[in-house]
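Quick start: what a row looks like.
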Amino acid sequence: MGCEAGEPAAAFDALDEARAEAALRACCAAPGWVRGMLAGRPYGTAARVFEASDAVLARLGEDEIDAALAGHPRIGDRPRDAESARDQAGVSGAERALLDALAAGNRAYEQRFGHIYLVCAAGRDAGELLGVLRARLDNDPQTEREVVRVELAKINRVRLGRLLDELAAGGPGEGTRA
């Protein structure tokens, strides 16, 4: 994240409601998270945006976490949007055998836990992500659900950091980012 903790989030705070909502939806698909983030404006600093994100996420019910999960592609699948493509950039050049192993791991994970394997993939390659997946298969469902919340918080922070950076640079700051 290029935003420094004290850097103002003025460009985000200044977005009209519709643009802010679209930008937040590109960060996280949970409607309750988007509503909570909108309700907290203005933030003034990136640090406050990140703190609010964590606090709103911590209050979400399991149905909202499921909505957030539904907004993410499987690790190793073709990304649905620019945010997912950026997040999974370390997987895109992986060899077929590794991608096949990830696909098999995804299936095993989904069968065990009933939802996609969610991990903050930014800066990680396919081999590392496969290792994390395999280790997490040993978790009990309650522990894994807690891990999912932690990983979602990391992803939200990465995406919010990009959003704030783009807005500060005069970029679009909504779901159509490239």
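That is the whole record. Confidence is low (pLDDT under 50) at residues 1-6. The radius of gyration is 16 Å.
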